[in-house]
Design a protein that fits this description.
- The complex is a heterodimer of chains A (333) and B (276).
- In chain A, helix 2 packs across helix 3 and helix 2 packs parallel to helix 4.
- Chain A has 333 residues and is of the alpha+beta class.
- The longest helix of chain A has 18 residues.
- In chain A, 41% of the residues are buried.
- In chain A, the strands form four sheets. In chain A, strands 6-7-8-3-9-10 form a six-stranded mixed beta sheet, with helices on both faces.
- Chain A has nine helices and 19 strands.
- Chain A folds into two domains: 227 residues, P-loop containing nucleotide triphosphate hydrolases (Rossmann fold); 96 residues, OB fold (Dihydrolipoamide Acetyltransferase, E2P).
- With 276 residues, chain B is an all-alpha fold.
- Chain B has one domain: Orthogonal Bundle (MetI-like fold).
- The two termini of chain B are 16 Å apart.
- The chains are: A alpha+beta (333), B mainly alpha (276).
- The interface between A and B is medium-sized, with 24 and 18 residues.
């Protein structure tokens, strides 16, 4: 069981409020991703759940028990740090066995559990090595191994993949998703990378300035952003935001259109512009178009589109896919 | 990348380094040589450097007149005792200042250091009276405690500097893994800080070994360490340069040997954190 509830959780550092009364419900077994720009409070919120920071107000409930003042060692949560935080003076075996040793588990059970975890994570050949002798990906796996052996109520991940190179990152992303399916344990994952959020989460929590902007499934947030911040943050490349007269014509002070929801033509359309940069990815082409009276817009075109730098093109936003926002930036539905 | 030095520059630097090293070492060497001279040769002018009648007489006389082993044992107990006791107090103190600092941490550290700026003689009378009233004059336990207190600021400062180099994440990981504060310090912090703790230990053993102010003022005979043993040969009754040198050589020999074998550790400890 690993249901976690946050009730009006508040955190202040001196005069600065970094978490502003957050309410959140995390169901048992869910994969929840906290996402937001740097300094939005996502890591602080995770550390509050872990117990590594004391809350300034509100309650944290883990499995129906008030855990607000329970020390981290007693919360039965496991955490994987961005820096891996392995014990450099211990072998991989002793690193993974450490939480079991702290829990007073006997040697034989320790051995069985460490070996099982090592097998799951392909670390069996490295058990005698020190962390310093491992690659980044292997170290990250040791950190995960250390987290899984104690069968915690929930796993907390603090940007665990940000120190890995792109290829390894996508491989580890997949491994973590598979691990979640296998263990069915609650996972809370902090990242600033919305691709990680979109690909892994059951539920994404978008944070900004210590507040929750929106909570929902990845596609929910992608299709129905509650406000301009979420609209701009979720999706890559970003949603195009248009305001002024062009937006008013479409019925709102500000409108948003995703790059794939703009029809491209070399003959006619609502808006006209000149192609600046064309990024050919093979499957898709992203065109950055300097549009007359609007500014830069990004359009997703098929991979074999035949336009290039300097060409004049016409753009038409697809009527069914226009997101409308009021003057305060909130979605109008 | 190392800079290439021209052969001439290298030779000049090497000569200069050896010269400075020799000048620093010279008093120790001279003491060592004098300890093998007769009292007459010891004060002869011009002094003879190597060509004199080498004798072990001073050593045997020193051994006859006083019990070297007992003083050496006192030195060992006082130096190591005060250092171990100091580490026991300083490790948790440095832990809290490095990993759980408050607004006043820096102030406390500066205050601790400032106590080293007070001349010890300023505290002599009260400490002497306290020791007298508690019946602790000329006891090793009093010296262990007093030297521990005297060196505590240095021990805390050194450990604080080492601990700050240890990533806080690792201690937090230990906390998440279910370690209590005591286990966090014993299983994670201390093993990771071993190089720092070892050099702190060595430096403080040396400081306590060489300490002469408190040992001379608070001991008479029973608890007198080697510093008091040397001082007993510098007496107003006559000139005993050769015997004084023999006593000094005997007193510094153990710590010189310890320092020689641990010099790598010492240098590493003293420059720890300077380059990351």
């Amino acid at each position: 069981m690993g249901a976690i509830q946050l009730e009006q959780v508040l955190k202040t550092f001196d005069a600065t409020t970094v978490i502003q009364g957050v309410d959140l419900e995390i169901e048992d077994g869910a994969f929840v991703v906290f996402v937001g720009p740097s300094g939005c409070g996502k890591s602080t919120l995770l550390r509050l759940i872990a117990g590594l920071e004391d809350v300034s107000g509100g309650r944290i409930v883990i499995d129906g028990q008030d855990a607000t003042n329970v020390p981290p060692a007693k919360r039965e949560l496991a955490m994987v740090f961005q820096s891996y935080a392995l014990y450099p003076h211990m072998s991989v075996y002793r690193n993974i066995a450490f939480p079991l040793k702290m829990g007073g588990v006997d040697q034989e059970t320790q051995r069985q559990k460490v070996e099982a975890a090592a097998k799951t994570l392909n670390l069996t050949d490295y058990l005698d090595r020190r962390p310093g002798q491992l690659s980044g990906g292997q170290r990250q796996r040791v950190a995960i191994g250390r987290a899984i052996v104690r069968e915690p109520k929930a796993f907390l991940f603090d940007e665990p993949l940000s120190n890995l190179d792109a290829a390894l990152r996508s491989a580890m992303r997949l491994e973590l998703s598979e691990l979640h399916q296998k263990l069915e344990t609650t996972m809370i994952y902090v990242t600033h990378d919305q691709v990680e959020a979109m690909t892994m989460a059951d539920k994404i929590v978008v944070l900004n300035g210590g507040r929750i902007e929106q909570v929902g499934s990845p596609l929910d947030l992608y299709r129905r952003p509650d406000n301009l911040f979420v609209a701009g943050f979720i999706g890559s490349p970003k949603m195009n935001i248009v305001d002024g007269a062009h937006a008013e014509k479409l019925g709102a002070p500000t409108i948003g259109v995703r790059p794939e929801h703009i029809a491209l033509s070399t003959e006619a359309g609502d808006w006209s512009g000149v192609v600046g940069v064309a990024e050919h990815l093979g499957s898709d082409t992203f065109l950055h178009i300097e549009t007359d009276g609007i500014g830069k817009l990004t359009v997703r075109a098929p991979g074999d589109v035949l336009v290039s730098h300097g060409d004049r093109v016409w753009l038409t936003p697809m009527a069914d896919h226009i997101h409308r926002f009021d003057a305060g930036g909130r979605a109008v539905r | 990348m190392a800079r290439e030095l021209s052969p001439r520059r290298r030779a000049t630097l090497t000569t200069a380094a050896w010269t400075i090293g020799f000048l620093i070492f010279f008093p120790v060497l001279w003491t060592f040589l004098t300890s093998f001279k007769t009292e007459g040769e010891a004060i002869a002018i011009p002094p003879s450097f190597l060509f004199f009648d080498w004798t072990l007489e001073n050593y045997s006389e020193v051994q006859e007149r006083s019990n070297y082993l007992r003083h050496a044992m006192n030195s060992v107990i006082i130096a190591f005792g005060s250092t171990f006791l100091g580490l026991l107090v300083a490790i948790p103190a440095a832990w809290s200042m490095a990993f759980s600092p408050t607004k006043s941490t820096r102030g406390i550290l500066m205050w601790m250091l400032s106590t080293k700026m007070l001349p010890p003689v300023g505290a002599l009378v009260p400490i002497y009276l306290i020791c007298r009233d508690l019946g602790l004059l000329d006891t090793r336990s009093a010296l262990v405690v007093i030297l521990m207190l005297m060196n505590l600021p240095i021990i805390v400062w050194m450990l604080f500097t080492y601990f700050r180099e240890i990533p806080g994440d690792i201690l937090e990981a230990a906390r998440m893994d279910g370690a209590s504060l005591r286990k966090e310090i014993t299983y994670v912090l201390v093993p990771m800080a071993v190089p720092g703790i070892a050099s702190t230990l060595l430096l403080n053993v040396i400081l306590a070994w060489n300490e002469a102010f408190w040992t001379l003022n608070l001991t008479a005979d029973d608890a007198a360490p080697l510093s008091a043993f040397i001082a007993s040969y510098s007496s107003p009754e006559g000139l005993f340069w050769a015997k004084l040198s023999a006593a000094s050589t005997l007193a510094i020999a153990p710590i010189l040997v310890l320092g020689w074998f641990s010099q790598k550790q010492l240098v590493r400890g003293l420059t720890f954190g300077a380059v990351k």
